[in-house]
Amino acid sequence: MSIKKAAAAALVAALGVTTLAACGADDAGKAAGPSGAPAPKTVTLVSHDSFNASKEVLAAFTKQTGFTVKVLKSGDAGEAVNKEILTKGSPQGDVFFGVDNTLLSRALDNGIFVPYAAKGVDRVPAAYRLDKERRVTPVDTGDICVNYDKKYFADKKLAPPVTFDDLAKPAYKDLLVVENPERSSPGLGFLLGTAAKYGDDGWQDYWKKLKANGVKTVDSWELAYNQEFSGSAGGKQAKGDRPLVVSYASSPPVEVLYGEPQPKTAPTGVSTGTCFRQTEFAGLLNGAKNPEGGKALIDFLISKKFQEDMPLQMFVNPVAEDAALPELFTKHGVVVDKPETMAPEKIAEKRDPWIQQWSSLVLK
User: Fold this and answer.
1) CB of 216 within 8 A of CB of 176?
2) Which end of the chain has fewer surrounding CB within 10 Å, N or C?
3) Please, which residues bridge with residue 255 across strands?
4) HSE-up of 114 (CA within 13 Å, CB side)?
5) Is 282 helix (H, G, I), strand (E, B) or coil?
6) What is the C-alpha separation between 362 and 286, in angstroms, rounded?
């Protein structure tokens, strides 16, 4: 995730550092810890810009634990992870949320997390629990996919693309905008999806075809989706002229929820043959000032209450098996049956050289 997924999340991101739950944030209200020193009553969650949660749910966490949640937004996922690597041992907060499977090895290899077995993690399928040492806990999952502007393709009487192959066809020349994989997690997920589809030696030729077909690259999801993409509410206001964008399978429900007036059907669709499966994790930061609060927060992130709040806050799917999806997702969302995937070990080995190769192929 990641995950920039909603205009609402972007609005929250503009606030920068935000305290999202009240109660007990005052230092004067600190309780004594085991050593006799005051135990901090604020737990700081460091995240990418798309983290969001309802005030009611975070207030419930405060009532349950006594800890107030303070959220520190640190840019796109790649940028946020890099900041934590640079401050390893003296982190900006207690918990980091938003490292996904495309960047996980970078975070783990740099030792920014310490092991913690979250309470309730047995409710999360083993397929999502990628770190055997339990340094991170899976929180959400979703699919990075090309989205299309339904009106554009209807007006042109052109069938929207379905597969990776379609995107390189002349009919879709100058229509696609993607994110730079060096800076953006959706961009990296899309690159890895092409590598999974075409193989270690075939993805470069595919990107040569995309470049020849007029693909446009921008630095972030926010720019791609809310500025360049003609199908989003933000893109319409910005007069975006690209009817194809790398986003998420869960993006169409966002356009329904925030539509004014709210449409009966989503104005955007998903090219289901272009998807890469993404999972996002949270971990206790090495050197956290409030490790007990951090552990309590990680437990809460996979609780049924938070998991069921999350889809309409960050537009991602819960990982807990007992969490139900909202009707907006079941009615307007897209189920991707066969997304591209890649083993974490291979991502760790290939990610950085592939990004360098991509930059040489596409940006020069």
Assistant:
1) yes
2) C
3) none
4) 16
5) strand
6) 37
Under DSSP, is residue 132 helix (H, G, I), strand (E, B) or coil?
coil
- pTM of the full predicted structure? 0.81
The dihedrals phi and psi of 224, each to the nearest 5 degrees, come to -65, -50
Q: What dihedral angle (degrees, nearest 10) is formed by the CA atoms of 106, 98, 140, 40?
A: 120
Exposed e or buried b per residue across 11-41, where buried means at least 16 C-beta atoms within 10 angstroms of its C-beta: ebbeeeeeebbeebbeeeeeeeeeeeeeebb
Residues composing the chain: 364
Question: How many Cβ atoms from other residues are within 10 Å of residue 188's Cβ?
Answer: 27
Whether omega before 181 lies within 30 degrees of 0, making that bond cis, reads no
Tokens read off for 188: 């990296």
Q: Give the per-residue pLDDT at 39.
A: 60
Query: Which SS3 state, helix, strand or coil, does residue 98 take?
Result: strand
Select from 306, 351, 349 the least CA-distant residue to 138.
306
CB–CB of 60/22 below 8 Å? no
Q: How many CB atoms lie within 10 A of CB 150?
A: 18
The C-alpha atoms of residue 234 and residue 145 are separated, in whole angstroms, by 19
By C-alpha distance, which of 276, 99, 100 is closest to 196? 276
Lowest mean pLDDT among 63-67, 123-127, 255-259, 303-307: 255-259
